[in-house]
Amino acid sequence: MLSAPVLHKLKSGRNLLAFSHGVDSTALFYLLDEAGMKFDLAIVDYNVRAQSKDEVASARDLATKFNKRIYVKSVQLGESNFEHEARAARYDFFAEICRKQGYENLILAHQFDDKFEWFLMQLGRGAGLSELLGMQELEARDNYVIARPLLGVRKCELERFLRERNLKYFTDETNLTDQFKRGFVRAKFSEPFLDEYFSGVKKSFEFLAADALSLTPEISNPAPKIYLVKRGANEIRGVDQAYKRLGLVLSAAQRNECARCLENGADCVLGGKVAVGASVNFILVTPYIKAAMDKKFKESCRRLSIPPINRGFLFVESADLSKFKELL
User: Fold this and answer.
1) Global pTM value
2) Per-residue pLDDT tens over the stretch 211-232
3) CA angle at residue 13 from 11 to 18, to 5 degrees?
4) At what angle do helices 235-245 and 252-263 cross, to 10 degrees?
5) Which terminus of the chain has a lower count of CB atoms within 10 Å, N or C?
6) Side-chain half-sphere CA neighbours of 184 within 13 A
7) Domain map of the chain by residue range?
8) What is the percent of the chain where pLDDT is above 70?
9) Which architecture characterizes domain 4-210 according to CATH?
């Protein structure tokens, strides 16, 4: 079931499995163990269901039984835009663990149904090819790599795997309703469609992935958290990928704002966190930081035509400006 390229990646380096004790992550836990992979666990309790306490307790028992470390975070989120806040909370938690504990790979249990649901949701919002494809088996982030070994597997196969082995897992009842947008898309569209046309959809994704390679923008990473996107037809996709590598997701509104700024040769700050600076040949993407800079540094930036919006971060990080001499 598991992707061979992803398994090859996981054989080296330290691995952290994002765990919920639902069907997908529980099946992935046992599949990784059977494959001889070494990994630890991280789980988030959102405190919205009484069952979540049982899930965390069972996850702790599982970690003890298999001699694994487990990291647990309890969060309280608002009711408005819960899905978005929950996603941000867990990814911030996972990124923090990877950074502090030295994990090089973050393993996620997304499967083919998730990939198709994402495709449909992005299609409904109005998105380009790279956004429609969304999830990839391996995606670089600034301090770690996201690995998705199950993207070629349907959820029903994972359920069958667990039932046949009588392995314990939990069912989040909210996933069975259309309370949230993803649940609505799953119940009304993706599951019925995949039940009829899974093999064709899988082949289409393979063709689309091959087509996407020809649209891949040129991105360089001269230093941590610093990305240079070559200007051209696919530059906004490059900004989107750099944004992801910084651990964030570019919204449709931010993408449109960024495109307008770049078209006019202007810099912009996205979400108050990421600075996108426009130069003649490249777009510079860094975290956004305000900083009081000395005159010598400012003059060096001016001579190299480094966009003003990025200079605060470069100054605070004591970046080697010589790396930009031939690029910008």
Assistant:
1) 0.79
2) 877 777 889 988 889 999 998 8
3) 90
4) 130
5) N
6) 5
7) 4-210, 219-326
8) 97
9) 3-Layer(aba) Sandwich (3.40)
